[in-house]
Amino acid sequence: MKKLETLLKNVSPLRIEGSTQVEITGVVCDSRAVSAGSLFIAVKGVAVDAHKFIPAVVEAGAAAVVCETMPEQLAQGVTYVLVENSTIAMAFIAGEWYDQPSRKLKLVGVTGTNGKTTTATLLYELTRLMGYKTGLLSTVKNIVDTTEIPAKQTTPDHLTLNRLLHEMVEAGCEYAFMEVSSHGCVQHRIDGLTFAGGIFSNLTRDHMDFHKTVDNYIAAKKSFFDSLPADAFALVNIDDKVGEVMVQNCNASKHTYSLRSMADFKCRVIEERLDGTSLSINGKDIEVLFTGRFNAYNLLSVYGTAVLLGFDPEDVAVKMSMLVPVAGRFQTIHAPQGYTAIVDYAHTPDALVNVLDTVKDVMGSKGKVITVCGCGGNRDAGKRPIMAREAARRSDKVILTSDNPRFEDPEEILREMEAGLDDDCDNVVKITDRRSAIVAACMMAQPGDVVIVAGKGHEDYQEIQGVKHHFDDREELKKIMGIK
Fold it and tell me: CB under 8 Å to 326, separation ≥6 — which residues?
């Protein structure tokens, strides 16, 4: 238990009704989780305004309420704290409730359009190979030392985030790596956290349904670097046109990485294969089990971050050769029939182009590329025709299919994708059912060909009309191939 006064230490209330000496037994933002002695934080969400639940939480025994609008009637014995923004207040309250866990860890955030999951996960794996207990917060999963916890959001809410960081501290973790989403930045989900470093991977079109403009998207990412403390580091990809923009107002020490320019951390791709790549990083030759220049960027940022955290460069180089690809990120499955399938999370035009160009570069003229791709419903519709056009230009055969249609008509999504195709495009077919599309792609494949199944990656579900049905691209491919 903690006194309300302690929890409000870093909050600037506009008004307080009641005693701040009350003992708080728990902090919640979900009215259903309220019990006797709870502090309830009423947040105005996108779909629901939690202020309407204040009478119910008081009835359930809440000792205090943080809100942006005072109720007309105040219950006796309950403390009401009026704040300008409940979400921001929750960030600082959560930190105090869980004893400021981010200050007890070397916490590194990874932001950018593509590569966040791979980079954060590889840093987690690398640090463990170095012999340290570590935590991970990612789109795919959260890990406290070795305990895996399913992830619901790329950047969780403040209470979940601080609870997980607290559990990492309790488990003896010294490091933690987390994805920092643009949504999380705008919605203040990283407010109140103390970061040891931040990484910027790249920025391409994504989330326009939320940010509306590219400038807003850039500003969201940049706000993370603006908030870094002076004793932290900022590592940015200067091959991306907005890389240097990210750190214009950054107080942290600034460092760069590149495959094309002079930088603090420089990489050269020596040889690419479908099962790995030979790299030279700052003059050190490293064999890795990853393919593609996009992965070279990810690995270079991992190397740079490890060095900036104080690890020995020689040891880092050795351990990097032991890292394995992240599930659903350029994950290869070799069919007994002689073709290769690649499952990748590519769900933006840039990510899809990266995968297709990588496969073409490695294969040369030795086989055909057959691509299965779709676009999710209730998301940025502007990228749909671009995705189809890039797939058609870079593949021998393309099958447009469903991804997660959510509440949209999948046929309409496919029609919008088709709008991006050239009039004389004859290498594209539509198969709305995703399972049938994957089967068709594999039936087309001959020995030496590559089947790319893009868009869902690690996801093990398909969301249709708001209902999640089990569906895993990797499982489907293995069934078709006869692999157990």
Answer: 117, 118, 121, 122, 140, 458
